[in-house]
Specification:
Layout lengths: L13 E2 L6 E2 L25 H25 L1
Antiparallel strand pairs: 1-2
């Protein structure tokens, strides 16, 4: 007698990292706790590392412009 193939009938359900509820691979949010599932398992992350650095650079640039305006206004 051979062991059953684990790939046969395998469910694509995984557990929510927050509440542990079973979620399928195509769910965008957990049906129990409503946590977004971006970046969990094979899902893409909400932001790439490059996008985060662009946002940080933009915020720094805005801060420096406002700081320069305040210094000039004094």
């Amino acid at each position: 007698m051979t062991a059953p193939d684990p790939r046969e009938g395998a469910s694509t359900a995984v557990a929510c990292p927050l509440c542990g509820a079973r979620i399928s691979s195509d769910d965008g949010r957990c049906p129990e706790c409503n946590m977004t599932l971006d970046g969990v398992g094979s899902r893409p992350a909400a932001f790439t590392r490059q996008a985060v650095w662009w946002w940080a650079g933009a915020l720094l640039a805005i801060y420096l412009v406002v700081l320069a305006i305040v210094v000039i206004a004094r």
